[in-house]
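Re: export button greyed out
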Amino acid sequence: MEYVWAFLIGGALCTVAQLVLDLTPLTAAETMVLFVVLGIIASAFGLYQPLVKLAGAGASVPLSGFGNVLVQGIFQELHKLGPIGLMTGGLTASAAGITMAVLFGSLVALAFRPKG
Amino acid sequence: MLADQQQRSWYQRIRARHIPKAPVVRNLLLAFVVGGSLTAIGQIFMDFFLGRGAPLEKAGAYTAVVIVLLGALLTGLGIYDEIVRIGGMGAALPISGFANAVTSAALEYRREGWILGVGAKIFTIAGPVLVYGILGSIVVGIIYLVLRIPIPGGTG
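Workaround output, generated via the alternate export path:
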C-alpha cells in the first residue's frame, strides 16, 4: 500500500510540475525552484510532514521534499540549540544529499566523457 | 486593404495548422508515470532503511543519497538524459534530477578545467534550488521566531 501512495503522490507532484512547465513561461530550472519554495511554504504551515508520513519517498524524493527538510531541520535545531539553529538547521538536515551530489557528480565527471 | 487582411488571416490559419500542438496530455501522463516510478523506487530504499530501524528523517536522508547516486551514475552513462527527454519534470523534479543537473554541469565544464570549470560551474543549474531553499527556509524560521509561534516537533 505504501508503494501505491509513493507512486501516486510522487507522480502527482511531477504532473503538476509538468503542467507548470507546459502552460507557463517557466523553464525546468525555474519550476524546480518553484517546487522547493512550495515545499517550504507547505512545511511552514505543517502540511508537508503529514504527506511524508502518508507517501514516504513519494513526498520526500521530489524537490518539494527538499524544501520540507530545510524547514524541519531549522525547527529541530531551534529546539536543540536556540536561535543559532536558524543558521545551522537547514543545511545540517540536507547536508547528506548536497554533499553526495557534489561527490558523485565529480566522480562521474572523472570517470565518464560527456556525450555528444 | 480588406484583401490584405483576409490574406493575412488565411495565412495565419494555414500557419496554425502546421505548428505542432504541444502534446500536453501525453507529457502529463509521462511525467506522472516516470515521476511515480522514481519515487516508488525511492520507497523501496526507504522501506529498507526503516526496516533496519532508522527513524523517518534518517531513512529519508539515506534514501536521498541513494537516489542521488543513481541519478549521477545514470547521467554518466547517458541514460538519465533519455529519462528526462521522456518523462520531463517526472525525471527533473525528483532529487535524481538535482543530481542530474549537478553531474551534467560537472561533465560539461570539465574541459574548462577542474577549478574554474567543474568547481565554479557544478551548481550552474542546481544552485538556484539551494539559494532559494536556504533563503526561503530561513525566512520561515525568522517569521516563527518574530511572531513567537510555537515551533512544531519539540520532542524530536
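Chain B touches chain A through 84 residues (CB under 8 Å). The button fix ships in the next patch.
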